């Protein structure tokens, strides 16, 4: 998914974390239009004002459930990415992915689309013709570490993922490993991502790695982590040092658990690029604009075929130099 803001702020993230104790920090989403001012709205919890990452997870959008009956639904034109992985996970509806490597894949609930941008890729995402009435899901980004940020781009679709079921609910492991269940999705840093489905009136208790920092993103109402209630779209950061995360539901509810080793590199994150310097971002932008204007298929980002419409132009760079930043507002 693209960051489609026409005047995107520099998204500051990366850097060393010093605190190692469990904590609670509520991250509220901000509302962003997906595809223009009259488009579907999404809630963005990462990057947040103070805390910009959870492990290598550097971007989190939550949308829906949206009624898209008679509407276009999701329509994100071809756009570029560098230095990250995009993680598409649906709770309802369907989204069609096309990319410059020639992949075309419809993703449905319970299936994972994972695109590793590496040195550079472009893709589009859209609700297909004849789509259903509801669209509900999350879009996540994972920052690639410095020594792997220029890997060759590639795409994975995982139609079957490990699921752990108990009387309290079910856990689907999207990436990484949790409670002995391991996803086949490729990762480049130690991390975990999982969907939690909690039965009404039950508490789902999950063993987690104490060296990871964790957060829970509520994708429905009626949830509490420990004794802290969450509204749909809220994220609760939990810090490090925990060996268990408990999520309670007073009605059938769902959440996404994110975690990972704190990401200690400083990043420049602007528009749809993750890099390490202003010049790196400016070069990626220039190469995207050149390829977009000329239609050259052999450039850095290639061409997405099959989308009915033009590629997304890059915003203008700000008038100040983009700086590599720490992963929180307090880190250098």
Automatic annotation (TrEMBL):
<dbReference type="InterPro" id="IPR011051">
    <property type="entry name" value="RmlC_Cupin_sf"/>
</dbReference>
<dbReference type="InterPro" id="IPR008778">
    <property type="entry name" value="Pirin_C_dom"/>
</dbReference>
<keyword id="KW-0408">Iron</keyword>
<feature type="binding site">
    <location>
        <position position="123"/>
    </location>
    <ligand>
        <name>Fe cation</name>
    </ligand>
</feature>
<dbReference type="Pfam" id="PF05726">
    <property type="entry name" value="Pirin_C"/>
</dbReference>
<dbReference type="InterPro" id="IPR014710">
    <property type="entry name" value="RmlC-like_jellyroll"/>
</dbReference>
<protein>
    <recommendedName>
        <fullName>Pirin</fullName>
    </recommendedName>
</protein>
<feature type="binding site">
    <location>
        <position position="125"/>
    </location>
    <ligand>
        <name>Fe cation</name>
    </ligand>
</feature>
<dbReference type="GO" id="GO:0046872">
    <property type="term" value="F:metal ion binding"/>
</dbReference>
<keyword id="KW-0479">Metal-binding</keyword>
<feature type="domain" description="Pirin N-terminal">
    <location>
        <begin position="46"/>
        <end position="142"/>
    </location>
</feature>
<comment type="similarity">
    <text>Belongs to the pirin family.</text>
</comment>
<dbReference type="Pfam" id="PF02678">
    <property type="entry name" value="Pirin"/>
</dbReference>
<feature type="binding site">
    <location>
        <position position="79"/>
    </location>
    <ligand>
        <name>Fe cation</name>
    </ligand>
</feature>
<feature type="domain" description="Pirin C-terminal">
    <location>
        <begin position="195"/>
        <end position="292"/>
    </location>
</feature>
<dbReference type="InterPro" id="IPR003829">
    <property type="entry name" value="Pirin_N_dom"/>
</dbReference>
<feature type="binding site">
    <location>
        <position position="81"/>
    </location>
    <ligand>
        <name>Fe cation</name>
    </ligand>
</feature>
<dbReference type="InterPro" id="IPR012093">
    <property type="entry name" value="Pirin"/>
</dbReference>
